Amino acid sequence: MHDYLLPLAKLGDENLRVILYDQLGCGKSQKPLDTALFTTDHYVDEVEELRRILGLGRINLMGSSWGGMLALLYALKYQQNIKKLIVTGALVSTHECVEEMNRLKTLLPKDVQETLAKYEAKWAFSHPEYLKAVDVFYRKFLCRLPQWPEEVTRTLNETSVPVYFTMWGPNEFTALGNLKNLDFKASLPQITVPTLVTGGRHDEVTPRIAQGIHQAIKGSRLSIFENSAHLPMWEEQDEYLQTVREFILN
Fold first, then answer.
1. What's the pTM value of the predicted model, to 2 decimals?
2. Which of 115, 136, 196, 197 could potentially form a cystine with 214 if both were Cys, beta carbons 3.0 to 4.6 Å apart?
3. 29 classed as catalytic
4. How many domains does the chain have?
5. Containing domain of residue 101, as a range?
């Protein structure tokens, strides 16, 4: 759902129109019982259909996390419809992303690592002790603010389980869904539109991944926010919005 991206609405003025949307199965959009449409192909074409129906012409497209992956996939199919592309905490290889997150887990306190391993071995991903341990990971690598914005908490609490499980899996560290084998890093050089790659220094989708995307897209810009994890639009909001605005308008 779009709630955690609401800071981007502050970019809207006489020069920029900001449109946020909930993809099929999430937020205020329809939630079909049939999960067959929860695929990358559908969601890429959903973005294109939204652009077409709203008569937007060529757009500045921004995506965060999975949305960053989606934005890159859209660019590979429809980049003629993009003016500029911005991705934040984006991934292009599920295996690489999970491998990096598992590496970050080794930086957690030993007791937290043991708790994660214990319940993952049992597939007990909803156990309160497991969720408490995941929260430790999130506080270091998802959002480092001492008090999370209500919009971020609401997004996590209202995550669409059918979409998340179908697309990714039972938790952040276990990818079993439609994205489990996705790796399109080799295709990134096909993207020729002006691209801004951003992320946080402490991001669960690590700067190593952002650097790889930047290197693969010729002429792209890279901006790593030193005091952020996965949500620089909240953690370093003023600097992040200024960076995005300058990229779009210049």
1. 0.95
2. 197
3. no
4. 1
5. 2-249
